[in-house]
Amino acid sequence: MEKRKTTMREIMARMAVRTYDFGYLVILNDPTIRASVHGPALGRFGETGLLEAVERELAGGKAWTQVRARVEPCRDCVFKLSRKSLTYS
Length: 89
Prior knowledge:
Layout: H1 8-16, E1 26-27, E2 32-34, E3 41-44, H2 50-60
Antiparallel strand pairs: 1-2, 2-3
């Protein structure tokens, strides 16, 4: 397996957003819309538009912006920007 060098663009993206989860919405069976299965509800499918759910997450949600620099113990790690994004909150 060939090792790939981390680019500066990837490092900068990891400072701001969770690169694996950014832009994803989860619609559950009940039909709650969430940015993360473990996160708060952003609305209900059929009642809340998907664009409105995205706006709610961008305005005040944490599922897409919970990065290593903001959580323990990662915030003190010297390798936090070279590591992959958190996978879930």
